[in-house]
Amino acid sequence: AQSVTQPDIHITVSEGASLELRCNYSYGATPYLFWYVQSPGQGLQLLLKYFSGDTLVQGIKGFEAEFKRSQSSFNLRKPSVHWSDAAEYFCAVGGWTGNQFYFGTGTSLTVIP
Amino acid sequence: NAGVTQTPKFQVLKTGQSMTLQCAQDMNHEYMSWYRQDPGMGLRLIHYSVGAGITDQGEVPNGYNVSRSTTEDFPLRLLSAAPSQTSVYFCASKQGTDNSPLHFGNGTRLTVT
């Protein structure tokens, strides 16, 4: 069955420090992978997506993610975190039908000055 | 652009009451879906629709009904609310039935007492 695991419930980083949020997926075929961000009281906004091709994908707001098939991972990274990056981040996997998406439980990011 | 609009933003119901959560999108998206978000559970798919007149169940459909009479609207009905349905509900849409990213509304926070 398809599933997504985000091992870190909460992460705290200092402003300007680098960030890596972990995501592991379980899917029997080629996965379609996404990272979304949710600010308090808002819906989810797409940060980036991976369908095929280059395993390092660039997204909005300076984020990038690397797909590693051998590790079933799709970790999100940012070289230098800004205070406005404080939010909840969700990893998601979709199947070839495009009808059902499976979300991780989310990682809450706190940024300290 | 309005995107995906959900109403109401907040709702309190008593056990056994019924209500409809409204969702409308103005992007002419074929695909629409409903998720519920619970602490520690991430987002879970309730129902989805790939076009007017076509609906299907997601991961957690029990206690919810949907219909899709127009491309724009996808209401979610709770026929007899239960405390276990206390949650934040998100409507999301996307173009087509491939793995295009989802566009989310801002959510409806529902409390059932």
Task: Describe the protein's architecture and organization.
The complex is a heterodimer of chains A (113) and B (113). By secondary structure, chain A is an all-beta fold. In chain A, 0% of the residues lie in helices and 52% in strands. The radius of gyration of chain A is 13 Å and the shape is globular. The N and C termini of chain A lie far apart (41 Å). With 113 residues, chain B is an all-beta fold. Chain B has no helices and 11 strands. In chain B, strands 2, 4, 5, 6, 9, 10 and 11 form a 7-stranded mixed β-sheet that branches. In chain B, strands 1-3-8-7 form a 4-stranded antiparallel β-sheet, with no helix packed on it. The termini of chain B are far apart. The mean pLDDT of chain B is 94. The chains are: A mainly beta (113), B mainly beta (113). At the A-B interface, strand 5, strand 6, strand 10 and strand 11 of A face strand 5 and strand 9 of B.
Overview in brief:
The complex is a heterodimer of chains A (113) and B (113). Chain A is 0% helix and 52% strand. Chain A has strands at residues 3-5, 10-14, 19-21, 24-26, 32-38, 44-50, 56-58, 64-68, 73-78, 87-94, 101-103, 107-112.
Give the ordered list of helices and strands of chain A.
EEEEEEEEEEEE
Average of pLDDT of chain A: 92
Q: Label the structural class of chain A.
A: mainly beta
* Multimeric organization: heterodimer
Report strand % of chain A. Answer: over 45%
Query: In DSSP terms, counting alpha (H) and pi (I) runs of 4 or more, how many helices of chain A?
Result: 0
According to DSSP, the number of beta strands of chain A is: 12
Q: Helicity level of chain B, as a percent range?
A: under 10%
Total strands of chain B: the figure is 11
Q: Note poorly predicted spans of chain B.
A: none
Radius of gyration of chain A: 13 Å
Uncertain spans of chain A = none
Distance separating the two termini of chain A: 41 Å
Tell me about the largest β-sheet of chain B: 7 strands, mixed
- Please state the CA-atom Rg of chain B, rounded to the nearest Å: 13 Å
Structural class of chain B: mainly beta
Q: How many DSSP H or I helices of chain B?
A: 0
Shape of chain B: globular
Which range best describes the helical content of chain A: under 10%, 10-25%, 25-40%, 40-55%, 55-70% or over 70%? under 10%
